[in-house]
Structure formats: structure tokens, C-alpha cells
Specification:
The chain has helices at about 1-20, 30-35, 60-65, 120-130, 140-150, 155-165, 165-175, 180-190; strands spanning about 70-80, 85-90, 95-105, 110-115, 195-200, 205-215, 215-225, 235-245, 245-250. With about 250 residues, it is an alpha+beta fold. The strands form two sheets. Strands 5-6-7-9-8 form a five-stranded antiparallel β-sheet. A four-stranded antiparallel β-sheet has the order 1-2-3-4, with helices on one face. Helix 7 runs antiparallel to helix 8 (about 180-190). The termini are far apart.
Length: about 250
């Protein structure tokens, strides 16, 4: 009996770091993101806002709105001595919402300067849902529907989609680089994307666009080195993250 009790005690000790919520050093970037998105109360939050976020000082944070009734996880996607960016995943009401939090170091104090969410106009979701309810679709409607499904996916879903179709994406880039237009068009359609292109501003990168609406765009980038990628910022490329070696998801706003 003593042995059984001892084994259970050891198991509890092993699981404790997993069960207990993460603890972050007060004032650290991780602590700040956790306070804003996870905690039901953020005292003196105005002291940790800067830039456009100062207008939000009297508004509820995401955490205060959710009142700890959601599962929140986050990870860093950019870090320098003076700035960092976090991708934040909020699971609530059986859906996952992606946010992006941008921090700056202001006189040795980390502060949130902006928060973004890639939220498309409501009619795009309505078109997607309407097409999903049709029993038969034309070739063009079917192609649009599949692209809309991708365009409205969250980051986790896009990562899974890419990994399942990685070979097709690699073939697509090879065809594009060898100027095999017809073959590239077929492969582009097979991965339910809208365009493939290069940009003189970002040599060494190939962009595969899922869809674009006005300025909002999402897709994948193939790059030989992360240093070649566009800069993550509160405008334009609000999100870039590696999926597998040399391949990245991007979002533009």
C-alpha cells in the first residue's frame, strides 16, 4: 500500500508543472500578454499601454471581457531588444480566434502598442456558409468555396492544411521558378489558392496567395532564409510564422 501511495505522489509531482498555470516574471513581455488576454483583472493597465493602445485605457481588456472563461495560449513570433510580437490563440464557444499583440520597450518597461485580429467582412463568411449549403456547385463556385474555406481558417488549421499538402506546394514553387505556367496553374488550383508571385522588395521569397480582399490577404511564403521575409508590423504583414523549414504563413491587413 505504501508503494502505491508513493507512486501516486511521484506521479503528482511529475504532472504539477503541467497542471499549474504558467507563471511569468512581472513586467516581462509574456506577463503583459498574459495579463491582457488571460486575466479577469488588469490593475493599472494604462501604465502598460502606449501608442494607439492609450485610447483603450478605459476599455476592458480581452481577458476582462472573457472573465477567464476561455482557453488562452500564446507564443512569440518576433523578438528584438526593443520590440516583440506574440501570436495569441483564444478558444471560446467552440471556436478559435487568433490575435496578434505588438509590444515595445519604452524606457525599460514593456508596453502594448497595438492588438490586431484578422477579421474579414461579414459577407465573406456569409458567402462561404451559403455555398456550403448548396447540394451542387459549378466548377467556379466550387473553386471559390474551397478558397474561402482556406481564407477563413485560423492559423492552426492553416498549418495543418499546409503540412498535409506540402508536396503540392513544393511542386508549385518548382513549376513557378521554371516558368511552367500551365503546370503551375494546375497545381495552384489543386491547393485551392488564387495566385503565386514574387516581389522585387523581397528577393528570395515566393508568395502563394490564398485570396485577397481589398488590402487583406493571406497565404504562404517559401523563403530560403527567414532574414529575407517581410518585416512583421502593425500594418501590412501583421503575421508571419514558420510552418516547416523554409515555409511560412502570412497575413496582410
Amino acid at each position: 500500500m505504501k508503494k502505491i501511495v508513493l507512486n501516486i505522489f511521484c506521479l503528482i509531482l511529475q504532472l504539477t508543472p503541467i497542471i499549474l498555470p504558467q507563471q511569468f516574471s512581472s513586467g516581462s513581455p509574456e506577463w503583459l500578454v498574459d495579463m491582457f488576454f488571460s486575466k479577469s483583472s488588469f490593475p493599472e493597465k494604462a501604465n502598460y499601454f502606449i501608442g494607439e493602445m492609450t485610447k483603450e485605457s478605459n476599455e476592458k481588456t480581452i481577458g476582462e471581457e472573457l472573465n477567464e472563461e476561455a482557453k488562452v495560449s500564446f507564443h512569440q513570433i518576433k523578438a528584438t531588444n526593443s520590440t516583440c510580437v506574440f501570436a495569441v490563440e483564444v478558444e471560446t464557444d467552440n471556436k478559435t480566434i487568433d490575435f496578434y499583440s505588438y509590444l515595445v520597450n519604452d524606457d525599460n518597461t514593456w508596453k502594448i502598442t497595438a492588438v490586431r485580429r484578422f477579421l474579414l467582412p461579414a459577407f465573406i463568411y456569409s458567402v462561404r456558409d451559403s455555398l456550403s449549403n448548396l447540394h451542387s456547385l459549378s466548377s467556379n463556385d466550387s473553386s471559390l468555396y474551397r478558397s474561402l474555406l482556406l481564407f477563413t481558417m485560423n492559423n492552426s488549421e492553416l498549418k495543418k492544411y499546409f503540412k498535409l499538402n506540402q508536396n503540392k506546394f513544393q511542386e508549385l514553387v518548382l513549376s513557378f521558378n521554371s516558368n511552367s505556367g500551365d503546370e503551375a496553374d494546375k497545381l495552384l488550383a489543386s491547393v485551392n489558392c488564387n495566385a503565386i508571385y514574387s516581389d522585387k522588395k523581397f528577393p528570395g521569397c515566393v508568395f502563394i496567395q490564398i485570396l485577397k480582399f481589398e488590402k487583406m490577404e493571406a497565404g504562404f511564403i517559401q523563403a530560403a532564409d527567414a532574414i529575407l521575409l517581410p518585416e512583421i508590423s502593425v500594418v501590412d504583414y501583421v503575421y508571419i510564422e514558420e510552418v516547416t523549414s523554409g515555409w511560412f504563413i502570412y497575413r496582410v491587413m
